[in-house]
């Protein structure tokens, strides 16, 4: 099978390839094509993959190209992990928002809207090309904002595009470990949108153990989300939120922490990765060890400002290993081999959440087989969560409309309606700020 990775020069591509190296079964990926606009980054990542594959019998063949149509033609799976505007674009998203006193995170609030407005036109073009050049391919989307981008692509690929994220998986595994269960055997009742969901139950051997967690302050304080949100707030919610909801529930504290930080997250990653790619310009450099060292630093500093504002301390060692590559591999296996499994994915609603229409992309447990991902029926969200989900989905729809029509007025509306942007005046200034620094937003008129 041929797997095409868009954003193939991206820093996290070796995670995906490393997962493929452990797959020895029939019907596995045998060819990986990396596509990127930056030939230098492609060269660096190809070297890392070559060192990963050294001594591994039957390792998937790797090739690289800057020609998108060549990369897509004949693909069985397309993994999309592009970053329109690069990490400098992310750093600009953060700076513009923070200058207005609002959050600039890449998937949440003003920063997420700006990133979405830049990314959706590119993602739609990719979806159209896939439909033409690889009509039988399945697209696995990791490009952020993952739910929004998956919905944009689904308008051209229907249910053959599926969004993935490692946040719900990591959350469920942490809760299962705290409760003494096997994360691989726990059923996670998780519902929401990408980066906006809640674990409402976790069944181990058929029994919901979440009430036991919520009743025990020591257990609640022993894992990442308990430290971030605090035991009292989790008990008030009667659920454990995705870590990204910290931006909503503790917005003022987080914005202040980001404003005080020496660098924004995007600027940190931009500079860190620039050093990595510069190091690999030396043909004698040990590519894999350089990548390992850089990745460890990246993971350890994830959401550092949030943890600082909450007094949550350092990340646990068990949380430093990533996970989205495992979700991607499990998804490919289930479809390619009809190895039925259950995964939390971003898929079209199809009536799963009554508050949203059938085409709205949501993040819920899905049964996956050779015919794709099928959302599992879930109980309704409580009113406070439904309100937030509907508000954010409404913003996503305005972003999609603005991207489709090139409407600056609709873009302002998208910013103004977001729960974390507190003024229409601020929304107008955000659009002015973003269009001034991003050539990719010149289409807004």
Task: Describe this entry's structure for a reader.
- By secondary structure, this protein is α/β, with parallel strands linked by helices.
- It has helices spanning 13-21, 39-53, 68-72, 86-99, 109-133, 146-157, 167-178, 210-214, 217-220, 224-229, 231-237, 246-249, 251-260, 265-279, 287-300, 304-310, 324-337, 383-405, 408-417, 424-437, and strands at residues 2-6, 31-35, 61-65, 77-80, 138-141, 161-163, 187-193, 196-204, 207-208, 240-241, 341-348, 361-369, 372-375.
- A six-stranded parallel β-sheet has the order 3-2-1-4-5-6, with helices on both faces. Strands 7, 8, 9 and 10 form a four-stranded antiparallel β-sheet that branches.
- Strand 8 and strand 9 form a beta hairpin.
- Helix 4 (86-99) packs antiparallel against helix 14.
- The relative contact order is 0.13.
Strand arrangement within the widest β-sheet reads 3-2-1-4-5-6
Please state the overall shape, judged from the principal axes of the Cα atoms. Answer: globular
Q: Tell me the radius of gyration.
A: 21 Å
Beta-strand percentage range: 15-25%
In round numbers, the mean pLDDT is 94
Which secondary-structure class do the elements indicate?
Answer: alpha/beta
Please report the distance between the alpha carbons of the first and last residues.
43 Å
Extended strand count: 13
The level of helicity is: 40-55%
Tally of helical segments: 20
- Uncertain segments are none
Biggest sheet: strands, sense, closure?
Answer: 6 strands, parallel
């Amino acid at each position: 099978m041929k797997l095409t990775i868009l954003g193939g020069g991206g820093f996290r591509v070796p995670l995906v390839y490393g997962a493929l190296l452990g797959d020895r079964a029939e019907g596995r990926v045998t060819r990986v094509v990396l596509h990127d606009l930056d030939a230098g980054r492609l060269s660096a990542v190809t070297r890392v993959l070559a060192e990963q594959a050294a001594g591994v019998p039957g390792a998937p063949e790797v090739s690289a190209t800057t020609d998108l149509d060549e990369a897509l033609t004949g693909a069985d799976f397309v993994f999309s992990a592009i970053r329109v505007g690069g990490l400098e674009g992310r750093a600009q998203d953060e700076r513009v928002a923070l200058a207005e006193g609002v959050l600039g995170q890449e998937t949440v609030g003003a920063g997420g809207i700006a990133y979405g407005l830049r990314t959706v036109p590119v993602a739609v073009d990719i979806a159209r090309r896939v439909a033409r050049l690889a009509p039988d391919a399945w697209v696995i989307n990791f490009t952020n904002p993952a739910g929004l981008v998956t919905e944009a692509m689904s308008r051209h690929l229907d249910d053959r595009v599926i969004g993935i994220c490692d946040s719900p998986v990591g959350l469920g595994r942490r809760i299962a470990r705290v409760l003494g269960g096997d994360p691989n055997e726990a059923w996670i009742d998780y519902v929401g949108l990408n980066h906006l969901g809640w674990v409402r139950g976790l069944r181990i051997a058929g029994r919901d153990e979440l009430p036991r967690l919520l009743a025990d302050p020591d257990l609640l304080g022993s894992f990442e989300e308990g430290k971030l949100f605090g035991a009292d707030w989790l008990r008030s919610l009667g659920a454990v939120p995705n870590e990204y909801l910290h931006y909503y529930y503790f917005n003022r504290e987080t914005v202040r922490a980001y404003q005080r930080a020496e660098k924004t997250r995007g600027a940190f990653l931009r500079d860190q990765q620039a050093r990595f790619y510069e190091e690999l310009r030396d043909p004698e450099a040990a590519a894999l060890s350089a990548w390992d060292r850089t990745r460890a630093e990246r993971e350890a500093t994830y959401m550092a400002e949030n943890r600082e504002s909450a007094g949550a301390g350092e990340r646990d060692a068990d949380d430093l290993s990533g996970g989205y590559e495992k979700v991607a591999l499990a998804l490919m296996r289930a479809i390619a081999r009809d190895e039925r499994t259950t995964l939390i994915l971003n898929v079209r609603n199809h009536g799963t959440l009554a508050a949203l229409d059938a085409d709205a992309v949501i993040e819920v447990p899905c049964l996956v087989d050779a015919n794709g991902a099928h959302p599992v029926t879930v109980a309704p969200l409580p009113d406070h969560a439904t309100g937030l989900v509907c508000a954010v989905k409404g913003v996503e729809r305005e972003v999609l409309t603005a991207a489709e029509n090139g409407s600056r007025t609709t873009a302002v509306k998208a910013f103004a309606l977001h729960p974390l942007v507190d003024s229409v005046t601020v929304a107008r200034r955000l659009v002015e700020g973003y269009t001034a620094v991003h050539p990719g937003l010149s289409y807004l008129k």
